[in-house]
Each structure stands twice: as structure tokens, then as C-alpha cells.
UniProtKB/TrEMBL annotation:
Highest rank taxon of the organism: Eukaryota
Pfam families: SCP2 (PF02036)
Protein name: SCP2 sterol-binding domain-containing protein
PANTHER family: SCP2 STEROL-BINDING DOMAIN-CONTAINING PROTEIN 1, STEROL CARRIER PROTEIN 2 SCP-2 FAMILY PROTEIN
Length: 268
């Protein structure tokens, strides 16, 4: 049985494993608890994950390690957990609505929303010295011969530049993140940056110029075109291994919506 929540939990696991030691220790000190998630699918299948932010800092699939006792056990439906992780609902609302059941230290449940939003991020390459905000790219500068994804980014550029300043600010205030896409085409990696965090938003060819992006996505050229065109779902792409993520996994849950909202009549 495939669980929708596995994509989120694998992302948190990756973030914790790749987090700098100091950041991981700070998270352990702040939370100081072991969470056990018993997740049930719509069909009645169950799976268990354990988030240990008390001892060594880890996320494991299955029951707790020997000698480790969870401080709180949360029973939750698969869809509800995904909604919690994406911010569509809160732990309090889910609990009050009977969608999650808690056993153990009830007060720890109040930390759940924060944990899902602030899971440790993996270390990035040393940041380059900050530079002034990049000039808006022209649509033609995004074109790369033989790379179909470049047409998508050209459409995204057209969509962004056709918006009013107020509309662009609305998109930026909603997304609040920089997405870096590493597109694999003909044995080469072509990088594009979608900046929906600074100024009025921008898209350009190359890596993010002002530090590190909140999320970096590696995906094959054709798969990205299918993703942007709605033929491929982001969650399914991740779970099937077609999409690799480094950084804040939660931002990936917004990707389908963002690509649909800012493209200008894509013709793929």
C-alpha cells in the first residue's frame, strides 16, 4: 500500500539526516521528545514512523528503536497528515475535529505544527557573497536549444511579467520561497531559479544568486514538462523517484499550484 504521507516523512527524514550537527542539536534541545505517528490509509492499512528529537535526532520507518519510548503517540489518517504538513489544517483543528487521536504527553501535540514546518534543513554549499538582486531575465535568455523545460520557464517568465505589481506581490507573499530547479537533459544539468521570495518575483537561468534556495529540485527534462502541464503530479513524481528534493520538503507540496498559477497559457 502506498501512503501519501510517506513523501512528507521521507522528506523530513532526509532533512534531519543532512542537517548540520549544530542545527540538529538545537532542534533536539528545543523539542526534547520522541513522536510516534501511526498513520492509517483510507483503505485501512497502517504504517508507523518515529521522529526522535530527544536522543540522536532521527526519523525511522517502523516502531521505535530498542530502549526508546515515545513521549507521544499520534494516530492520524493519511490524508489528514498530508494536510497538516502542507498547512491546510492545524494540529488543534484536527484534534478538535476528531481527526487525530493522541496518547501520552498531550502538550507535545501543540508543537506538531511547528515541527512539520521547521524540520532541520540539509547543509548547502557555502553561500556566495550576497549581490544585488538579479535583473529580471528576458524570456529569450531562458531558452535553451533541446531543453523543453526552458519553454516552461519562458512561459513562467511571461506569466510573471504580465501580472500587475500587486498581483506579483500577492504571489511572493503567498509562496515566500526560492525554488531552484536542476533539469537533467542530454546528460547535462541545466539550472533555473524561480525567486518567489524577493522583490516582485523573478525567474532566471542559473543557480540562486543570493545565498541558498529554500528548496532545490532535481528532475528530468520531460518529467518537468509533464509536471508543469499537469500530466504528472508532484507527489507521485517524488514517490516514484522521478523528482529529488533537497531542502524544505513542505514547499514541494505547493509546487503544482504555483506552476499552474504563474504560467501564461503554456503550450507544451
Amino acid at each position: 500500500m502506498t501512503f501519501k504521507s510517506n513523501a512528507v516523512l521521507e522528506g523530513i527524514k532526509s532533512s534531519i539526516e543532512n542537517a548540520p550537527a549544530a542545527e540538529k542539536q538545537a532542534q533536539i534541545k528545543k523539542v526534547n521528545a520522541v513522536f510516534q505517528f501511526n498513520i492509517k490509509s483510507a483503505g485501512g492499512d497502517e504504517t508507523t514512523w518515529v521522529l526522535d528529537l530527544k536522543n540522536k535526532g532521527s526519523m525511522t520507518h517502523g516502531g521505535p528503536a530498542a530502549g526508546v519510548k515515545p513521549d507521544i503517540v499520534i494516530n492520524v489518517g493519511d490524508d489528514t497528515f498530508v494536510d497538516l504538513a502542507s498547512g491546510k489544517t492545524t494540529g488543534q483543528k484536527a484534534f478538535m475535529g476528531g481527526k487525530i487521536k493522541v496518547k501520552g504527553n498531550m502538550m507535545l501535540a501543540t508543537k506538531l505544527d511547528g515541527i512539520l514546518k521547521t524540520a532541520p534543513k540539509p547543509a548547502a554549499a557555502p553561500a556566495k557573497a550576497a549581490s544585488s538582486a538579479p535583473a529580471a531575465a528576458s524570456g529569450s535568455s531562458l531558452k535553451i536549444a533541446g531543453v523543453a523545460s526552458s519553454d516552461v520557464f519562458t512561459q513562467i517568465h511571461a506569466g510573471i511579467t504580465s501580472m500587475s505589481a500587486t498581483e506579483r506581490q500577492g504571489v511572493v507573499s503567498k509562496a515566500k520561497a526560492v525554488y531552484q530547479f536542476n533539469i537533467k537533459a542530454a546528460d547535462k544539468i541545466h539550472t533555473f531559479t524561480l525567486d518567489l521570495k524577493n522583490g516582485n518575483g523573478d525567474v532566471y537561468q542559473g543557480a540562486y544568486k543570493n545565498g541558498k534556495p529554500e528548496i532545490a529540485i532535481t528532475i528530468a527534462d520531460k518529467d518537468f514538462v509533464d509536471l508543469a502541464g499537469g500530466k504528472l503530479n508532484g507527489q507521485k513524481a517524488f514517490m516514484s523517484g522521478k523528482l529529488k528534493i533537497q531542502g524544505n520538503m513542505m514547499l514541494a507540496t505547493k509546487l503544482d499550484t504555483i506552476l499552474k498559477s504563474i504560467q501564461k497559457k503554456p503550450k507544451l
